Amino acid sequence: MNRWLKFIIVILIGLALGLVYGWVISPVEYLDTTPSTLRYDYQTDYVLMVAEIFNDNQNVEQAARQLAIISSDPPVDIVIQALAYGAQLGYANADLVLLQNLATSLQTWQPNPGGLVP
Amino acid sequence: MNRVDSLNPGDPNLPRKGNWYLLTGLAIGLLIGLIISWMIAPVKYVDTVPSSLRSDFKNEFRSLIASAFYSTDNFERAAARLELLGDSDPIQALTIQAQNLLNNGDPTNTAFLLAYLTSALKQNTEFVPNLTSTSIEIASETIDKTASPTGNGTTITEVTPSSPQQDGIFTLTLRPSSTPSPTPGSPFILKSNQIICDSPQKSLLLQVEVTNSANQPIPGTEIIITWTGGEEHFFTGLKSEISNGYADYLMTPDLVYNFQLAKGGAIVSNLTAPTCSTGGESPNWGGIRLVFQQP
Predict the structure, then answer these.
(1) Which helix (H) or strand (E) segment is B69 a member of?
(2) Domain topology for B189-293
């Protein structure tokens, strides 16, 4: 077999080994992730926690501030999305009601002109 | 003889080149592969788990869990959520965070919420060690089929903490939470003010014990201590290996302190570190033990 052909074949074998090692055996690890990268069910539970707290203290400003940590979307959109996911994940009715109440309150809420301060 | 004839591979006079070029090619390929997989197109994690969060976000998550627990008193849910953070010792993580907050002034009063959750966890110590095995059991039964593969090719098996299935399993082993709370409206009275001289370990230590009318220790009670030019807040319940209503503070000799519970009641003023004996050149400092109770 031509030496150049052999050379190219071993390069390709090396490339394949490198990709397997870098993507499968020892991929780049993300240890310091942010809440926005959380899987949707964890994000939904996060929103549920905010709704539980809001149900107790009725502090819509605080709820919006807490929601801003997981997404840059408008707070009401985050809650509506969580509501949909919650229903999909089989959340209890009581939890869905909490999310619904928070969404309703956020719909009429106007942020301060200075914006949210996390 | 022409040049072509001289390059005949069978010619024993030709130098042997070997197969090193194959190894070189393999190394080049490997290098390119690693550059692609680690730098140009690394594995991207979009469906991460709470345990991978940066430490400040973990603190935020912990605060939220504590706050939600304070609002709902749903212990099993709070414990399941804490488990997701992957702390080797959740109680210690909560305590450290609360103490750091207190050291930084704690403008949002979150330390109290963390202390409240810490206290509940300690009261359910028989329950807490079971969390890991319970979670694994749950995960094996209710694997989230929609979970994305992680970078190492395995499937994430954690379940949503608020899912009804998980709640159902936790309820089986849950002991009723019995966090004592102060009787509303009743101001605390100073039941005893005692100087401690018998233990060198308690030297300069201001020990506080807060109990309700049934003499049950109350965790999470905020204590305010002031002195000329300074003020500090701390909470009961962070050292519940001693008592859930216990807190302590290390006094500085010669400073005069005023002491009060944030919820009101008796004010203890002009507290100084007591001197137990003056036998040596330096005084032998003692400690103080204050016990507050609701009538």
Answers:
(1) helix B55-72
(2) Immunoglobulin-like (2.60.40)
According to the model, what pLDDT value does residue A20 have? 87
**CA dist., res. B39 & res. B29, Å (int):** 15
Cβ contacts of B52 on chain A, cutoff 8 Å: 30-33
Nearest CB to B33; choose among A14, A35, A46: A14
Nearest residue to B111 (alpha-carbon basis) of B280, B224, B271, B270: B224
Q: Is A11–B25 a contact, with Cβ atoms under 8 angstroms apart?
A: yes
What average pLDDT does the structure give for chain B?
72
Q: Is the interface score ipTM higher than 0.85?
A: no
Q: With CA atoms as reference, report the closest residue to B229 among B257, B251, B208.
A: B257
Nearest CB to B68: which of A53, A69, A89?
A: A53
Q: What is the pLDDT of residues B158-205, one digit of tens each?
A: 333 343 333 333 333 333 344 555 555 567 888 888 888 887 777 888
Indicate the DSSP class of residue A25.
I
Handedness of CA B55, B56, B62, B64 (dihedral sign): negative
The mean per-residue pLDDT over the stretch A32-61 comes to 92
pTM: 0.52
DSSP one-letter string for B232-248: EEEETTTTTTT-TTEEE
Which residues of chain A make contact with B167, given a CB cutoff of 8 A? 92
| B29 with A17: Cβ contact below 8 A | yes
Beta strands in chain B (DSSP E): 189-196, 205-211, 222-227, 230-235, 246-250, 257-261, 267-271, 275-277, 284-285, 287-293
Give the number of beta-carbon pairs within 8 Å between A and B.
167
Which strands form B246-250's sheet, in the order they lie side by side? Answer: B189-196, B287-293, B205-211, B246-250
Q: What average pLDDT does this structure show over A88-102?
A: 93
B244-268 per-position pLDDT tens digit:
788 888 888 888 888 888 777 778 8
- Residue pLDDT, tens place only, B268-280: 888 888 888 766 6
Using a CB-CB cut-off of 8 Å, the residues of chain A touching B144 are 41
- Residue B277 CB-density burial (10 A; 0-12 exposed, 13-18 middle, 19+ buried): exposed
> What span, in angstroms and rounded, lies between the C-alpha atoms of A21 and A26?
6
